[in-house]
Amino acid sequence: MKVVGLTGGIGSGKTTVAHLFESLDVPIYIADIEAKLLMNNSEDIKRELIDLFGENAYLNNELNRPFIADKIFNNKDFLNKMNAIVHPKVGEHFKRWLKQQHSPYVIKEVAIIFEHKQQSQYDLIISVIANKDKRLQRVLNRDESTPEKVLAIMEHQMNDVDKAKLSDFVILNNDKTTLKNQLQKIHQSILKHIENSAI
Ligand code: ATP
User: Fold this and answer.
1) Which residues contact 87 (CB under 8 A, 6 or more apart)?
2) pLDDT at 92 over 90
3) How many angstroms separate the CA atoms of 198 and 56, rounded?
4) Is the pTM of this model over 0.85?
5) pLDDT above 80 for 82
């Protein structure tokens, strides 16, 4: 079973693209969503996050997002420590999930692959790219955020040109009209790649 990484900057359209792969019967794993579920459901993670941030890390047994977001916004050390708690658990969860899939390949959507130098964990990588102003507008329409916050996140992510150079496939998502077409071609190329690598 091949693992295809799907990455891209904030608001590029990774999740939108992931669901289009799902409509081609490709199993998808959205790391962000699984991480959020694990943070609410794993007793190990809960204990470690309370050790790190204090009792206020959870409110009514749910992760206290505004409190954590505030803590990590200006403190990279907190963010790194939180990632060190959550990421390995998501990795283990993904391995268990992968064993249950029956398909030539799966899509794993992860916002940050190149930035963490995790390319080797994937057989192939697709990057979704889109103009910065469109990405900003999409995120502002979707989330209760501010341009400053979104731009600060963009600053910490690799730019699209560098990402494209490191990727096996690039999907341009400035508008939705060509998405399905682009996806279909990539899907066929991946299947061909898998067929050839099995010979
Ligand atoms: P994030 O990294 O913030 O999770 P993402 O890369 O997964 O974002 P999506 O959640 O797929 O991006 O898209 C962000 C928002 O933009 C969503 O509300 C989505 O519906 C919208 N969107 C995605 N692609 C397009 C498009 N081509 N045209 C208009 N809106 C789009």
Assistant:
1) 35
2) yes
3) 51
4) yes
5) yes
